[in-house]
From TrEMBL:
This is Putative transposase. Transmembrane segments: none annotated. Signal peptide: none annotated. It comes from the Bacteria. It holds the Pfam family rve_3. GO terms for biological process: DNA integration. Residues 102-263 form the Integrase catalytic domain. NCBIfam families: transpos_IS3.
Amino acid sequence: MRSIRNSRKSATLRCQLIGLSRSVLRYQPRSSEQNIRLQTQLVELAQRRRRFGYRRLHILLRRAGMQVNHKRIYRLYRADGLMVQRRRRRHGVAVERERLSLPSAPNQVWSMDFVFDALSTGRRIKCLTVVDDFTKEAVGTLVDHGISGFRVTHALDEMARFRGYLKAIRTDQGPEFTGKALDQWAYQRDVKLKLIQPGKPTQNAFIESFNGKFRDECLNEHWFCSLAEARIRIAAWRRDYNEHRPHSAIGNHTPAEFAAHWRASQHQSQHEILISTPGPTK
């Protein structure tokens, strides 16, 4: 009993020393029904609108008929840990602007980019497009729901099996093109990476022009029901683009015709050089 009395006296003396009422010391806050209901609505709304801050959520609650001060919303917002995390801005690679020049032969420079579309179900598909800047040929397309940097390098190896390896490739600064996978691939195969400046798509004008035609003549003309159908139709359009569609930049020839004429002219030039070269003297 003495210990209990002493503890009571000590608590009373301590409160007197600091000027605090014992009722305040033992006060336990009680959440009102209004606060509980408001907190529940705030959490549900924040889960649906994950990038909204407390000010915007306060406006939505007022529209729903909740007459509440923004300061109370802020306190509940902080107490439930609903603060929006700031997304770190991705910094591009600092590169000098390079003049967009036309190559003088196939496989000197390829251009590469991504185009996005969706299936009839709403699921996104991602298309990797690769073009030879000289012949205007669509070297290849890769279609999938997601394409990593490693998948990009694998696709380039498959394309090079039929055409030979390129000397340089021009891309934007997307994460698939600035990652380690493509960088190591280019180093091992002695391929130069030409990165354009961030936010300057005109520096990659050849692939941008191709992608515009690709979207207008293929993606916008079809309603893909599955990934398999998208791959079949896109592959068919690429063959038609290379073999039947005239291109104004290469004298209204098709890319395949232009490439064949160039190869024939190269063989003819080499043959003429061999004929004109005198043989060894006896």
